Amino acid sequence: MQSYKYLVVGGGMTADAAIQGIRELDPQGSIGLIGAEPHLPYKRPLLSKGLWLGKSFDQIWYGTEARGISAFLGRTATHLDLAGKSVADDQGALYGFDKLLLATGGRPRRFPFGGDDILYFRSVDDYLRLRTLTETRRKFAVIGGGFIGSEIAAALASIGKEVVMIFPEDCIGSRVFPGNLCRFLNRYYRDQGVELLNGRTVTGLVREGDEIRLALGETGEEALVVDGVVAGIGIEPETRLAEAAGLPVDRGIVVNEFLQAGHPDVYAAGDVASFHNPALGRRMHVEHEDNARTMGRLAGRNMAGEANPYRHLPYFYSDLFDLGYEAVGELDSRLETVEDWSEPCRKGVVYYVAQGRVRGVLLWNVWDRVEAARALIEETGPFGPGDLAGRL
What we know:
The chain is of the alpha/beta class. The chain has eight helices and 26 strands. The strands form six sheets. Strands 1, 2, 3, 4, 5, 6, 18 and 19 form an eight-stranded mixed sheet that branches.
């Protein structure tokens, strides 16, 4: 058995940030990393954003290897022994630890059909596979009208591909954006040349040579023939290792304010962690870069001897053709929304309100206001529409 002062299970952005945090306090302690992918940590957002707009592929790497770690890549942790403080992997290797971080992220939701003909866009290998397809193929279906689906559709259209978006909701981002904004996005995407099949579902797939035939609707009588299929229909937190070990799991691995996961020497962070946020007064898990990096670094520092609580309210961002946004807090289109546009659906702020308190803020083509939005969410209010006009 190989033993490490710090063992990190997971090879993503959270893992790299945790290793950075450890090294800030402990330059010499041994660190082992078990990663399911064959790659060291990389900047995942570039896969659906910057790499399609001309950024160099070399820019995705964090350089984690320079921090003096032992990396075991292409391996999946299969068993966690809390009493023996060890982790086993799918190749039969055993790793001991003093402190353990579970940064296992999430696994994509999948359809019960289609197999490898559907590209579930999550990893650098998914990006490379799609990029190779675009070199010779013309028409692509993107299943899903949420965060990843909207970004990938915009990326493919921006390099001149024919794109068809298919999603069961009425409009793009309908679970997040207020009705008039998501209806605007439908029109906007169509103006950019993207065909939308909204209010539709994919119910089957058949490969016919180099082409793929998608069946649409409950009867499957309607068909769409494309050259490639990308799906972005969400992820499930990868909690199986923790759950089997008896750690607390509830829509993620449950952590306390110090990011300990039901055991004083076991921590969890990133997409997989379910944490309490004091500004919102509720438990949440967040699948975005800011949370991954900020939480990961704090987890690493706490593993190395600090005891600082995680009270950060994460933000997320996206780029959709020439539109862009940053968002903080709880964005749910079912909440009351107050819209403050300087240019309707082009530039402005949307506030998400419940019982007089601001729960979330969408900064639509409005920049450098994230900290002000966080401060507003922490205020107790009550706020009415008149109080929020011009606030940010």
